[in-house]
Give the backbone structure.
Amino acid sequence: NIKRLIDFRYQGPIQTETHTVLFGGIELIVLQESYDQKPWEQVKKLTQEIMDILSKDPAYQKLDYSDRYHIKVTTSKPTCEIDILPAVWLENKEYSTTKREIDRGIIEYNFHRRTQRKYLPFRHIARINSKDRKTNGGLKNVIRLLQSLQRDSTEPIDLNHYEISSLIYAVPEKQLMYDPKHALSLLGIASAQLNRAVTDSHYIEKLVSPSDKELVFGKKKWKKDEVTKLKNQLDGLIKDIKSEMKSEKPTLYSEVVY
C-alpha cells in the first residue's frame, strides 16, 4: 500500500476578496501527489472518499457531484456554499526550479466532459491581487460587479469566477484605475471589454489567463454566448443609470459629487 499525503489549498474569490456573498465563495482544493500513470484514478478514489465522509455529517445539508467535476457542498447555520475540487499536483518545471508556491501547478479532471486541465491557480491569485493594488481597487470592483450581475440574473450565465476575473484582468491598468469621483467610468470600460470578447472570435479564443500559462476559453465557442448574456446584464444596468442621470445631463465619465 502507498501512504498518501493529502494537501489542502484555497483558490477562488475568497483568496482575492472578490466574493459577493457573506457566507460562500469558498473553493477548497484537495490535492495528492501523482504516484502512477493514471492520476485520474487517484482523483476518482479521492472524490468517493470525500463524498463518503461528508455524507455522514449532518452539518452538510446538500452534496452535489452531478457535474462530475467538483463537489458542491451546502452547509447549514449559516447556509454556506463551498466548492471542493479533488485534484493532483502538477510536477511542472517552474516549481521544480523556484520551489515557490505561486509557481506550483495542479491538474483537475472533468469526468463528464472527459477532459483535464493543467494550470497555476496560485500565480493567478497573486497577479489578480497585485494588479488590483496598481489600479487602486478598480480591477476587483469590476469583477465583483459582474459577479453580482451574474448571480442576480434570472437567466443562468455559465461563466465561473476564473473566467470573469481573467476577462477583466486583460484590460490595461490605466483604464482600470479607480477614481472615487469618476467611479461610473469603469462601467463603460467593462462593457467595452465584454463587447470585444463577444465580437472578436480570435481575441476570446486566444485570451490568456493572468498566470500566462493557459487559454481561458480556447475552443469553447459556446462561452461567447455566456459572455453575451453577462454583457446584456451590464448594459441594462448602464441604461438604467443613464436614465436616472438624464435630468442632470452628466455622463458615465462625469465627476460624481456626493
